[in-house]
Amino acid sequence: xNIYLIGMMGSGKTTVGIKLSEKLKKTFIDLDIExxxxxxxxxxxxxxxxxxxHFRLIESEKLKTFSESVxxxxxxxxLMEKNRQFIKxxxxxxxxMATMEELA
Length: 104
Fold this sequence. Notes:
Elements: E1 2-7, H1 13-24, E2 27-30, H2 31-39, H3 43-63, E3 69-72, H4 81-89, E4 91-96, H5 100-103
Parallel strand pairs: 1-3, 1-4, 2-3
Helix pairs in contact: 2-3
């Protein structure tokens, strides 16, 4: 079973995810970094060259490839219903909240 960390960019998903994965002895996955490695482009390049819809399709497919991990999801992963359904069915989801000051 996975642990999915969701929240706004800058809410601490990576920081919390690394610490949590160490504590639970699970692999830590930063979904955006894994996408960049798999396609050989940055997220910005993917958006610029292929658009958000294309990126979201890649994100959805990559999301399904991990097990027994702590996964820091990109801020927009929950925009697609199928992603919301998948993470609810395949793990525990934690929403990390932050104030506007913390996000700035």
